[in-house]
Amino acid sequence: MTDTDSPRAESTSTVEDARDRDESDPLAGYRDHFAVPEGERYMDGNSLGLAPDTALATLERVVDEWRDLAIRGWEAADPDWFHYGEHLGDLLAPLVGADPDEVVVANSTTVNIHTLIGTFLDTLPGTPAGPDPSADPPAVLVNDLDFPTDHYAIRAQLRQRGLDPDEQLVAVESRDGRTIDEADVEAVLRERDDVGIVFMPSVLYRSGQLLDVDRITAAAHDHGALAGFDCAHSVGAVDHALGDAGGDDEGADFAVWCSYKYLNGGPGATAGLYVHERHHGTTPALAGWWGNDKATQFEMRHTYDHAGTAGAWQIGTVPMLSSAPIEGAVELIREAGIERVREKSLALTDYLIELVDERLGDDFSVGTPREHARRGGHVAIEHPEGFRVSEALRDRDVVVDFRPPNVVRVCPAPLYTRFEDVYRVVETIEGIVDADAHREYDPRDGGVT
Ligand SMILES: *Cc1c(COP(=O)(O)O)cnc(C)c1O
């Protein structure tokens, strides 16, 4: 889909045009809140968001509270530490389109997958704790292109219930190695009547495809299955309506996400989860005192009285120092407005895709869907020497990451990336391949990027 002959082409290909776009960007001022590394084009906000000053401020406040209040901080801090996971859940709820009671900040994403998949397996026939243990066992429907940890956690939860993961974990196949067609999710649901849980990502971590949460929820519910989502690659960049998803707006059943990507909560920041209110009261698979009803938690009874909200899926003490930055970081996104953040994200990725089409040769292609409704916050630029290109970019102060086999992920995170940065990134790639500079790098695969 190159369109170098279009009239648009000339106007997009100048740095002046990029600067014009920045001048008319209503969110341009937000960049000043972020610790943008001097001289760098940081295009990795889908892996680790940059630090906002507002997040550092709430972290510092909690450090001060710890120093000044010590144990009293659980009640005397403002907001108090005791209800802090719930408090952050209230702040996050509008970003995912849920009610405050349906969202809490707790645990890690992987742990939240464990507890929520486990919780809902226990409600299904064919599991030991389910309503009819002797029924045929339920299947969990995932996909071929999922982030690995999701499958590890689900397989473990199946195994712990005596179910064979090789039989009960079913993956929808990708037709093109990049995307998942929602029609194929629907087809599996029609073919097999044993699917108890559909668990899909909102955005695929490699190609950046945004899946149709609404359609998948409706399909799952039509076939008597629950619909859960891993929104790690979308919360903070894409607006969601989890509480209204599916036919008749009945809402997705549950979701998880992490706070260190587009939410800018810091490395390993405490994760978030959503459980629709119709499931409040269901017994969490991984019980712990922090999920107890807050009113009776400190009576220290030996029987667990779980909270009647999503707060029940907390496990242990809220990790205050890994949670505090989320407060300030989310404040910024709420102030900018998630719809406007999404709008700018699409404008940036539109621009990036246009430039790739216009400026880079035929060896490059865009693996991310071009339709807005199917695109998350990053763009997968494919090149047979993608690894070497990404290494060469890093040496030229462009921070991207590489995902095998051939994908350079470029994420112009909307709150701190300028159109000029996008322009410079494509210009840098062009310079690298024109000079064959990437061939100076080892073609080997690397470590964590
Ligand atoms: C980043 C990411 C995770 C990370 O899980 P952690 O428990 O935070 O390590 C999980 N799933 C998806 C889809 C992700 O993108």
TrEMBL record:
Basic and acidic residues bias: start-end ranges: 16-30
Record bears the keyword Hydrolase: yes
Catalytic activity: L-kynurenine + H2O = anthranilate + L-alanine + H(+); 3-hydroxy-L-kynurenine + H2O = 3-hydroxyanthranilate + L-alanine + H(+)
GO biological process annotation, one example: pyridine nucleotide biosynthetic process
Record flagged with keyword Cytoplasm: no
GO molecular function: kynureninase activity
SUPFAM superfamilies: PLP-dependent transferases
Keyword field: Hydrolase, Pyridine nucleotide biosynthesis, Pyridoxal phosphate
Cofactor(s) the record lists: pyridoxal 5'-phosphate
EC number: 3.7.1.3
Region (Disordered): 1-30
Subunit structure: Homodimer.
HAMAP family (alphabetical): Kynureninase
Protein role: Catalyzes the cleavage of L-kynurenine (L-Kyn) and L-3-hydroxykynurenine (L-3OHKyn) into anthranilic acid (AA) and 3-hydroxyanthranilic acid (3-OHAA), respectively.
Protein name (record): Kynureninase
